[in-house]
Amino acid sequence: MAKSNIRKIKDKAFALNSETRIEILFLCQEKELSITEIARKLNLSLNNTSQNVSVLERENLVRKTRHKDGTVTVKSLTKISENKIEW
What we know:
Helix content: 40-55%
Strand order of the largest sheet: 1-3-2
Structural class: alpha+beta
Number of strands: 5
Order of helices and strands: HHEHHEEEE
Number of domains: 1
Low-confidence stretches: none
Largest sheet: 3 strands, antiparallel
CATH superfamily: Winged helix-like DNA-binding domain superfamily/Winged helix DNA-binding domain
Radius of gyration: 13 Å
CATH class: Mainly Alpha
Mean pLDDT: 92
Shape: globular
Oligomer: single chain
């Protein structure tokens, strides 16, 4: 396997190596949510939520959309079930 492929797998594994980030993916797989909504549902600070979403976005696991009113919404690009992750 090429080193670049190993690096990609390692980076995705890092992004998924957090219960918080997995919860964010799960919350946003059915409905696009704002950073504020995610923070409220998971009882996190806005800063912590934003940092975790950025890690997921960097690995193309979520899509962030910035709206004209300044709101940032997040949609999961990953489907999670109890025994499978699809990206």
